[in-house]
Design goal:
single chain; Rossmann fold; 2 domains; alpha/beta; 11 strands; about 35% helix
């Protein structure tokens, strides 16, 4: 084994998972300061990591969830195999990551020792660590994988960088000092009611705060924004930004970012933007951004089944979080600078 190994980190999950993996990546760089550190992630996730100065290369893997397209994926696997990595570590713990680890063929292949999923998954690794205990923050759970190499992060705060070449375009879309409110989430049950957003906007506007609202491009998310427009026609709304790199540059401009538990919340936090996370169905102890600049607010105890996308309770947990509490948290952040 060389003293400056070639290392490949693998993560085939979602946007937020890639962001929460960055403390572990940073710890690997600190442990192997002379290493050549590469990352393999889904193609759509790659812009999140491309501008981290301590990564040597980000490899985007084309994919469609639930399907394997060998004509697209095999050339990437073959190119990675030619790199002759000394070590690989699979943070995702899923079948795609395990099989990729095996095919890429690093000398040391680290992964989770799990019994579920692909029956021969454990054979894809030659170094394994137990699954972390339940209840850990996701960044800590991901970092736990590195215990197999004796690596412990000194900090669990996430870190990503925006593309500096997009700064001017971002300034045109969002004036510096604007408070950005993201009203959608991947699951409807994680969304604060639109009526609450309207009251929050009215409070903030009356206090002289500059707000702008964003959402995702899907039909359901756009319907939430239409509802907001009808109730608060004066509320500034940002256009949908399909380019993730530009979206990150816009987020970097924000004075504060407010949303439920969703990917953009983790993007903003990792860009060092102060955030207010609105939590209900998901555990803030496991998923909330870490660091002194961030605030977490919770509604009433959630009674939803963890597998459901929507809330079937007569009393939605996030509806119990009043706009006044969110506005007070915003004032607290603005006063603290």
């Amino acid at each position: 084994m060389t003293e400056a190994p070639k290392i490949l980190a693998i993560q085939f999950k979602y946007f937020g998972d890639a962001v929460l993996m960055t403390p572990a990546l940073r710890a690997m760089r600190g442990h192997f300061p002379e290493s050549e550190l590469h990352v393999l992630v889904p193609e759509e996730v790659a812009p999140l990591l491309q501008h981290l100065p301590w990564l040597n290369r980000v490899w985007p893997m084309p994919r469609r969830r639930g399907r394997v397209n060998l004509s697209q994926t095999w050339p990437v696997i073959r190119a990675l195999r030619r790199k002759r990595f000394d070590r690989s570590v699979d943070f995702g713990g899923n079948d795609r990551g395990a099989i990729s680890s095996l095919f890429i063929g690093a000398r040391l292949r680290l992964g989770l020792d799990e019994g579920r999923g692909y029956l021969r998954r454990r054979l894809c690794y030659n170094q394994r660590v137990p699954t972390a205990p339940a209840g850990l923050h996701e960044s800590a759970r991901l970092a736990q994988v590195l215990s197999g190499w004796g690596i412990t992060p000194s900090s669990l705060e996430s870190e990503i960088r925006a593309d500096p070449a997009m700064e001017a375009s971002a300034e045109e879309l969002l004036p510096a000092g604007t408070i950005v409110c993201h009203i959608a989430a991947s699951q409807p049950k994680k969304e604060w009611p639109v009526a609450h957003w309207v009251v929050f906007y009215q409070m903030a506007a009356k206090a002289g705060c500059r707000l702008a609202f964003t959402t995702a491009k899907g039909a359901r998310e756009q319907s939430l924004m239409e509802e907001l427009k009808r109730s608060a026609p004066q509320a500034p709304i940002l256009p949908v930004i399909p380019d993730l790199g530009l979206f990150l540059a816009v987020l970097k401009q924000a004075a504060v970012f407010v949303s439920g538990d969703t990917g953009p919340l983790h993007f903003a936090a990792a860009l060092s933007v102060p955030t207010i996370g609105l939590f209900g169905p998901s555990s803030p102890a496991q998923w909330a951004p870490l660091g002194k600049r961030h605030r977490v607010l919770t509604g009433s105890p959630c009674r939803c089944d963890g597998d459901t996308q929507v809330c079937y309770s007569a009393n939605h947990c996030l509806a119990a979080l009043p706009p006044g509490r969110v506005f007070a948290a915003l004032q607290n952040i603005l006063k603290s600078g």
